């Protein structure tokens, strides 16, 4: 995410995976890979993308930030 050797190099990615592990993976057990993939997809789309805000994207919801990036590109 940042430059090599930067203290905050992977901070956003580590924050995401810590939330995923704490909110979903530690609370559930899955019978198959398909069930796990569906649960992770649902968690991201239904909870994560709608809740947290981050300073790196001016505290916007991630889904709004993605839409604004797409509008700038096209």
Automatic annotation (TrEMBL):
InterPro entries documented for this protein: Integrase_cat-core, RNaseH-like_sf, Transposase_IS3/IS150/IS904
Domain of life: Bacteria
GO biological process, one term: DNA integration
Pfam families in alphabetical order: rve_3
SUPFAM superfamilies: Ribonuclease H-like (SSF53098)
Protein name: Integrase catalytic subunit
Organism, as annotated: Mycoavidus cysteinexigens
């Amino acid at each position: 995410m940042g430059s090599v050797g930067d203290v905050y190099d992977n901070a956003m990615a580590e924050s995401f995976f810590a939330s995923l592990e704490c909110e979903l993976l530690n609370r559930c057990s899955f019978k198959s890979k398909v069930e796990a993939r569906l649960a992770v997809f649902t968690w991201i789309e239904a909870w994560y993308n709608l809740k947290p805000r981050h300073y790196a994207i001016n505290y916007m919801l991630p889904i709004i930030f993605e839409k604004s990036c797409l509008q700038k590109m096209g």
